[in-house]
Amino acid sequence: MSKIYPFKFLDSYGKDDTNLFFGRDEEINDLYKMIFESNILMVYGASGTGKTSLIQCGLASRFQPHDWLALYIRRGGDLNESFDKTIIDAGGIAGSADLARSFKAIYRSSFRPVYLIFDQFEELFILGTKEEEAKFIQTVQGILNIEQPVKMIFSIREEYVGHLYEFEKAIPQLMRKKLRVEPMNLDKVRQVITGVTTFEGTNISLTQGEEQAITGKIFDKIKGSDKTLTIQLPYLQVFLDKLYMATTHDDTHQAEAVFSTDTIDKMGNIGDILRDFLEEQVKAISQKLSNGSVTVSVDEIWKILSPFATLEGTKDPISMRTLLDKLPGMDRKLVADTVAAFVNSRILRHSEDGDVYELAHDSLAGEIAGKRSDEEIALLEVRRLLKSYTDLNKQTTDVLSEKQLNFVSPFLDKLNLSPAEQELVAQSQQKIVEQKHKERRRFRLILSGMT
Question: What is the CA radius of gyration of the chain?
Fold first, then answer.
């Protein structure tokens, strides 16, 4: 039996990783109990606490395959469209158009209770529209009203729980059963490290007699000088990967490794693990893509990576076409080669469903957002403003104010405006000109009346 590398880096744990998933037994038990007490369950916590892994691996491990049909749903381009596609793919006949018939058809084809798992639900509030949210609320209300029991689990970053206000008004039971996923304390870190280094088939082990010291040193290295009793799971995963490389120098992850306190001590001051990891990868990709005639700067690589993070520092899944639209003037081959290099270095993932690329973890998005210049931030704010008004104009005829237009104007030549955005800017300019003409006429009338 060949041994396996047990660390997932920034990937989530899935149903096939139960032999690698440790440190969350208490949360798994609580989640399993709660799901039978309500048809809606809210799972929330900070980015990096492992909410997705807790559900897709931890909770899934408590069910036999015939006990549940888990349908995982991410927003994609639109949550309602993603929901409909998931339902139809599972055997539903009409998506959200006829919920009762759809879920009855799904049950008849699988004979398993249906669990709808809405992962990274904050994307609805970061990237979606009010119209999209309102339609989805109606869908949830419809699911709760059908006779067939359907369980719904929502996973959301805790800083976006406040955005659920309108949702909870329409669905009062939304927050009645909820589980907060805490960061990893020292005891849970010990469970993780001990578990992945002792299960049958792992290629990682700890130096005998140093087990307690090793886990304590790893925790302290990641924590650094911060006065905290917890660490984030992505930091632990990246550190363990770095420790493996420092021990074996094997980037294929096939060699067996014995972790020791001596190796940990030699790693020196770790600093911000994710920031340093990103900077190392950006520098390496810059060097790799440069040749004798062309030099690719580190700034260019950061610029290509930037659109994958929102203003708030969360993931923004985008297609290659959208990425190119957001990088006008950038060499297309350079963009494609850079994206491929980021996929290879496990910073980006490619999803064939929707043909989009996204960051491997939200924690990376925060680091990327922190690298932006004032001009990049302003460009993102302009893009958001234009998008919000073009979405709004589907129902109204609102245009930009003069102040907003003055803010937008210096950046227009740096953006690939859509036809709707071009029309918005033109209508705004025209309305401002008309308003100024009216003001001048009114002023002249006032002056003429005074003479």
Answer: 26
Phi/psi class of residue 268: alpha, beta or left (left: φ > 0; alpha: ψ in -120 to 50)?
Answer: left
| Residues 337, 323 contacting (CB under 8 angstroms) | no
pLDDT tens-digit readout, 377-399 = 888 888 888 887 887 666 666 88
**SS3 of 127-173:** HCCHHHHHHHHHHHHHHHHCCCCEEEEEEEEHHHHHHHHHHHHHCHH
Strands 348-351, 356-359: pairing kind:
antiparallel
Between CA 417 and CA 383 the distance in angstroms is: 9
If DSSP codes are grouped into helix, strand and coil, which group holds residue 181?
Answer: coil
| Nearest residue to 100 via CA among 67, 35, 149, 167 | 149
Tens-digit pLDDT profile for residues 118-175: 999 999 998 888 889 999 999 999 999 998 889 999 999 999 999 999 999 999 999 9
Work out the end-to-end distance of the chain between its first and last CA atoms, rounded to an integer number of angstroms. 102
Tell me the sheet residues that pair with 42. Answer: 154, 178
| Alpha carbon distances (Å) from 80 to 113, 137, 151, 378, 431 | 22, 10, 17, 30, 35
343: Cβ–Cβ under 8 A, 6 or more apart, which residues?
349, 350, 357
Alpha-carbon distance of 426 to 137, in angstroms, equals 35
In this prediction the pTM is 0.83
Nearest to 12 by CA among 317, 349, 270: 349
Q: At what angle do helices 298-305 and 273-289 cross, to 10 degrees?
A: 120
Q: Which long-range contacts (CB under 8 A, 24 or more apart) does 375-380 make?
A: 376/303, 376/306, 377/311, 378/411, 379/411, 379/414, 379/415, 380/310, 380/311
